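Risk register update: the risk of archive-format incompatibility is retired. Evidence:
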Amino acid sequence: MSQFNIDEIEKRTLSGLKDFQRATVERVDYLFRHNQNRVLVADEVGMGKTLIARGAIVKTARLRIEEKDDLFKVIYICSNQNIANQNIRKLDVTGKNAIGSVSDTRLSMQHLKITEQENDPQIKEGYIQLIPLTPETSFRMTSGGGSVQERALMYAILRRMPDFKGHAASLEKFMIMDAVKAWDGWAKWSFENRVAECEKMTRGVYPQNVIDKILNYPEYGEIKDMLLNHLHERRYHKQPTYSNYYVMNKLRVMFARISVSMLEPDLVIMDEFQRFKFLLSSDDSELGILAHSFLSGHDTRVLLLSATPYKLYSTLEEIDENQLDEHYAEFFQVMNFLFDDEVKDTKFKEVWKNYSHALSELKAGDSAIIRMKELAENAMYQGVSRTERISVMDSGDYTDDSSVKHHLQIDENDINSYIQMSRLLSKTDSNHSLPVDYAKSCPYLMSFMKKYKIKEQIEKYYTKHPDEFGNEIEQSLLWLNRNKINKYDELPKTNARLEALKEKAFTGGAEKYLWIPPSLPYYEMQGAYKNSKGFSKILVFSAWEMVPRMIGALVSYEAERLTVGKLVHQIKNQYKKNTGYFAEGSRRYPVARLRFNVSNGEVRGMSLFALLYPSKTLSDMYLPIESLNNHESLEVIEKSVRLKLKEKLAIIEEKYGDSGNNKEDVRWYYLAPMLMDGVIYAKHWIEDIVWEMNTDEEDTTSEVRSSSKDKRNKGFTAHIDKLRSYLDAPEEIHLGRKPDDLLETLVNMVLGSPAICIYRSNGRSTARATSLAKVFVNNFNLPESTAIIDLAYGRCMDDNSHWQNVLKYCKDGCFQAMIDEYIHMLKETAGFQSDGNQYQIVHDMMMDSLKIHTATYIADTYPDFKKRINGADTKSDGCRIRSSYAVGFTKDAGDNSKVVMRKENIRNAFNSPMRPFVLATTSIGQEGLDFHNYCRVIMHWNLPSNPIDLEQREGRINRFKCLAIRQNVADKYGKADDITFKRDIWTEMFEAAKAEKQNDQSELVPFWCFGKNQSVKIERLVPMYPMSKDEVNYERLIKILSLYRLTLGQARQEELLEYLFKEFKDTSGLKKLFIDLSPFSKGKEG
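Archived output:
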């Protein structure tokens, strides 16, 4: 244990926590040390429960060292792989855990993983071993054949057993199932190699230990006979006694149980544990047995994390529907699990019963209740702690819902589309009528309904009666029109909610933004960004599956129509090629102009180095911190940069200029910065990026390395060679006359060149700056970006000088301030691996999040539908609509790694300053995932019936250092006279804000809430139709939200609230009856 220094790790980990988080960690430690082995941390959504878990790991590691344990095993259970990916890195306190892919988290595979880790010297050194599991895939055994990885590993073990020696071939056939490609491609040998490697490392102990456990497994005899019989039946094509899945399942369960017996955890952390309630019931299903053996080890400590450990609130409607009061039942189920011995449990129930009784008969002026409440609170505090924002402020202080008062504008098309859809439906013999909410929620219903019963019935009916299917005009509002879209025409407004969203999304010309304007611009923003202050991304929640797809498609189309479409309509009569929406990808108008093209052997794109070369000299000519401290305007900044440039240019001209040549020489643009830096620096930079280019190639899969990419790289290499030839013989560079706009262009480079800005802000590495700048250049090459720049500055006479407008755009939108703020946010995410190269980690995260991911949504069209019902089997491509400005985040079938990755990509992109700017989701986005970095506007497309959902949804964006908080901090401290920045603008602004909080407040202020006078708020949009019931419903939701905490652990909460609303005219005094389980405030009470 030489390397493992618990003191240092503890110090480092706890110093990264806020005061209220530290208090909670100390409390968990106290309970673990005072034989309360199960503890629940139920902090509100978005308060950093994962960080508390991190602290608890370190504290419990110290405890296990005192208890003389030689390897501390921590099992982290969370509900899906997205969350596992998001959090497992944060939990790795030693940085020693090889957290490769989180994908072999299935239970049946853990025997291999445990062996690999136990024999990994690095993990032994780190003392703490982390094992992530995802129960849906790990514990639930019902889903048939498992994954190909799982089967490959089972095969590697079984084929080593004498019982199956003669059956290897038929066993393998059975194990492949239908994954031939994956099996032969990698799975089979990958797991064979891993098993063989462990065999070597453990000198044969593994897998023999697993085989021994199989032989001693109670049902092994039956399983062996069943399997051999099954293989026999398959080989001779007999009717099988059992299905493939049934047999496979038996094997998976066996391996899972054996793995569990080898896990023996010291600490089990269950994140968002409300998802695994099924693990708490001790029934005798496979699952119950697994869970039981897992959670009730003699000294296994269990830390449960969940903002909603039980349903927080059950409406009477839900109780009637489910014939169960879920809140009440689940509350006691959880408490029962925490206090797992008879005495503790009985004592808790008694105290709680007395308190409930007193509450149900509460009258104004009753003071005895206070004592009862304290007893109940204290009893619960023995196993539960919870910190909430309400401890420092009321929700009204940070949420602005003023828009609720404004009704939607209804158009006759809204009504007509409902009528058209009802007509279509009424002709069929379906007994369904069209829910009004469908029409209110989604325009072009027939285009976007996928897998909806109503549409399936329509299709079924008209397939039998194709001649009854009306013409397109009768259904014009139900279908998207492909021709209109191809011409970038405006689509008829048929849905008031969508119109409200578009108005918000494109406010102030936001279709021309490529990034969210920085919360603290270092100088006044210009051009497209002139009125962009306070802009935010938008998160939309909808109850219907079709809405996110529809929003992703139609809002993105609108963004393209307002940019590319506008250009296309301007050039009506000239150049017509490829101007249609559906024109082929890379040829689509306007084509990319930032290209390293070579034509007739001549390189054409040398000037692009102005965007990609991180000049040290230019970088030093502008220091944001200094100009902020001096409150300099853009004019003043540019003036001082100009003076510095003139001086440098004079030196270059003297050394490299050719006075005899009066012809304008465009090489000045890119050679001047390099010559200012010196040839050696510039050549080093070339070596770096060439090296980077070659290593980068190996990562990409063969499919990606297509010919066009090779061609691109060839072009780039030709330009690099040309540059080298200049730098190899600098004395032969004879520069002609300087271009007239050279000075202005260099000023724009100093302030806006992506490479220079990134170089300034992320550790001054030239290779990193260039590779990330290339990602931005790719973004600028999209047709939409090209159109935006043309609309902002007019099209250049010569497309080869388009790059100068790109520089202008970067300067106008304060690229530097934008990238600094983004890096600050990523450092928060990556900050825990502080010993690694933080800059590199942040760089990798940016490279990952800013890659361009395109998705298309297929919308059904009238002609396609007509073909289908007429039985034409032409496979049509559908009407594919690109999603860029907005994306949908829906429940995809299966939890395969592709889907997980796609969701991860969307989340990372939405949490970056770049597009997408609108994210629409069903309830899937409600739990566990954060979307707060650049979003403070939330739109409830449909009101939830349960008030808690409102809080849960908003908890996605109302989090640590979220956009609303940053915009407040920047407004108040960014330009304040008494602040002098030293090193890190964002950290120091937050320090200044923290210094102003009152003493009794926790550090929720200023990082989560801004105290009483928060000027920039979370905006809650609830698009209401005039005269709709939503208004009354909304008021009621808000009223309940303000007091539901009173009803914790009570039956029929809604009735209790009704009683209290009647009994107390003014309910504000009741807040002192809220149960407070916050270690921070309890510590303050002494």
